[in-house]
C-alpha cells in the first residue's frame, strides 16, 4: 500500500481498494462483521474520509443523494460507481470536508467537483431541478454518437453487474463495454 501511495496518481487511488480487501479479510479471520457504511433511514449526503468500492456499490441511491470524500480522485472506483448509480459525487475535497457539520444543508456539484456549504434554499432547489432536467435529457438521448464536427465516436458502458449490462443494451445503440 505504501509503495502505491508513493507512486501517486492512479496507483495511489487504488490503495483504497487494497485497504478495503485487507480490512474485510482481517474481519473475516477475526470473526467480526465486515466493515461498511450503515444504511441511512432518510435521504442524506454521505461525507467520508474515503469510501471503498464495495461500500459505494452497496449504497442505495434513493437514500444516499450525494457523496463527498476527503480523499480520492475522479478516476477512483468510488467516483466511477457513484456516476453509474447517478449519485452526485465530489472526491478529493480535502480539508473542506472537515468544515461541514453533521446535519448541515449543503449543495454539491459532482460534475464541477464543487461543494457549497451554505446554499440559498431557492438556489439549491433550482439547481436540483436543473440537474433532474439534464438527467432526463441524457436518459432520452437516442444518438447518434458524434462530436460537434460530425466525427463518429464509440460509446462504452461501465458495467458493474447484470443490471448495468441490461441497461446498456436497452439503449438500442451500438454500445461496447469498457
TrEMBL record:
Keyword Iron: no
Entry keywords, A to Z: Pyruvate, Transferase
InterPro entries: PEP-util_enz_mobile_dom (IPR008279), PEP-utilizing_PTS_enzyme (IPR050499), PEP_util_AS (IPR018274), Phosphohistidine_dom_sf (IPR036637), PtsI_HPr-bd_sf (IPR036618)
Pfam family, one: PEP-utilizers
Domain named PEP-utilising enzyme mobile: residues: 41-113
GO biological process: one example: phosphoenolpyruvate-dependent sugar phosphotransferase system
GO MF annotation, one: transferase activity, transferring phosphorus-containing groups
Domain of life of the native organism: Bacteria
Protein name: Phosphoenolpyruvate--protein phosphotransferase
Source organism: Kocuria subflava
Amino acid at each position: 500500500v505504501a509503495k502505491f501511495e508513493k507512486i501517486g496518481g492512479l496507483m495511489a487511488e487504488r490503495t483504497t481498494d487494497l485497504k478495503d480487501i485487507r480490512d474485510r479479510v482481517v474481519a473475516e479471520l477475526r470473526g467480526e462483521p465486515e466493515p461498511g457504511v450503515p444504511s441511512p433511514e432518510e435521504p442524506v449526503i454521505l461525507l467520508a474520509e474515503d469510501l471503498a468500492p464495495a461500500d459505494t456499490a452497496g449504497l442505495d441511491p434513493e437514500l444516499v443523494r450525494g457523496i463527498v470524500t476527503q480523499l480520492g480522485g475522479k478516476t477512483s472506483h468510488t467516483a466511477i460507481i457513484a456516476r453509474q448509480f447517478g449519485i452526485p459525487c465530489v472526491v478529493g475535497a480535502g480539508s473542506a470536508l472537515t468544515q461541514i457539520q453533521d446535519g448541515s444543508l449543503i449543495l454539491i456539484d459532482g460534475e464541477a467537483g464543487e461543494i457549497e456549504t451554505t446554499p440559498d434554499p431557492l438556489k439549491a432547489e433550482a439547481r436540483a431541478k436543473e440537474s433532474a432536467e439534464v438527467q432526463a435529457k441524457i436518459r432520452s438521448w437516442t444518438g447518434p454518437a458524434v462530436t460537434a464536427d460530425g466525427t463518429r465516436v464509440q460509446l462504452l458502458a461501465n458495467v458493474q453487474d447484470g443490471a448495468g449490462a441490461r441497461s446498456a443494451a436497452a439503449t438500442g445503440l451500438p454500445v461496447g463495454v469498457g
